[in-house]
Design goal:
15% of the residues lie in helices and 25% in strands.
C-alpha cells in the first residue's frame, strides 16, 4: 500500500531530527522540506524543495500531511502560527513519535505533537496539540500539557504537573509534583520549579524564581 506523502516545513536542526523520526517510523513518505533560507542539502536524505510559497501547490498535488519542522528558542508562538497556517491550507498534522520513545497506552497524545528519542510519557498524561517532548524528557503520570507546549531535552515533569498553552520548559528543567506553569511562561534551562509560575513570566535558578525584569504577562 502506498504511504501518505508528508512535507516538512522548516529545514534546520529540529527538522533534521523529525526527518529521522519519519524515516524510522515508516508510516509516511517524506517528499521533501520547504524553507526559504536553507540549502537543498540541509537535511540528509531529504531535499529542500524551495520556500513556503510552494505549500498551496504541494497541497494541490495531493500532499495532505505536513509537520512543523521549526523548533523553539524561548518563544513558541512561531511554531503555533505555522501549525495554524498549515491547517488553514488543508494539511493534516500527524503526531510523530520516535520508536525509541516510551508512550503509555494510557496517555493521550494530541495531533501535531512530536516526541523525540528516549522521551517517556507515563500513564494518565495528556500531551496537547502541537507540543514537542524533546529528547530524553520525562512526562510523569497525570501531567497535562496544553497546546503548543515545548519541553526541552532532559526536562523532568513530576506527577500531576500542569503546563498551559504555549509555555516553554528549558533543557534539564525539573518541575516538582503538582506544580502549575501558566500560559506562555518560560522555565529556564536547569531551573527547579518548586512553586507555581504565573502566565507570561520567566523562572530561573534553583529553586526557580521570577527575576524583577522577567518577560511581562
Amino acid at each position: 500500500m502506498k504511504k501518505p506523502a508528508l512535507v516538512l516545513v522548516g529545514a534546520g536542526g529540529h527538522a533534521k531530527v523529525l526527518a529521522d523520526i519519519i524515516r524510522l517510523d515508516g508510516r509516511y513518505d517524506l517528499v521533501g522540506a520547504v524553507d526559504p533560507a536553507a540549502p537543498r542539502t540541509a537535511i540528509p536524505g531529504c531535499r529542500v524543495l524551495g520556500g513556503d510559497e510552494l505549500l498551496p501547490r504541494l497541497f494541490r498535488r495531493g500532499i495532505r500531511h505536513a509537520a512543523v519542522g521549526v523548533g523553539s528558542i524561548k518563544d513558541t508562538a512561531p511554531r503555533l502560527s505555522l501549525a495554524t497556517r498549515l491547517r488553514r491550507l488543508g494539511f493534516k498534522l500527524p503526531a510523530l513519535v520516535h520508536p525509541g520513545a516510551v508512550i503509555s497506552d494510557q496517555a493521550r497524545l494530541g495531533e501535531g505533537s512530536q516526541v523525540m528519542a528516549g522521551a517517556i510519557v507515563n500513564p494518565g498524561a495528556v500531551v496537547g496539540r502541537d507540543c514537542v517532548v524533546n529528547t530524553a524528557a520525562v512526562i510523569e503520570h497525570d501531567c497535562v500539557l496544553g497546546e503548543g507546549v515545548f519541553i526541552g531535552p532532559g526536562a523532568l515533569l513530576s506527577g500531576g504537573v500542569i503546563v498551559d498553552d504555549g509555555a516553554f520548559i528549558g533543557i534539564g528543567a525539573v518541575l516538582l509534583q503538582g506544580k502549575h506553569v501558566g500560559r506562555r511562561a518560560l522555565v529556564a534551562a536547569g531551573a527547579v520549579v518548586t512553586r507555581d509560575i504565573p502566565a507570561g513570566k520567566t523562572a530561573v535558578g534553583v529553586p526557580a524564581r521570577i527575576p524583577r525584569r522577567a518577560r511581562p504577562a
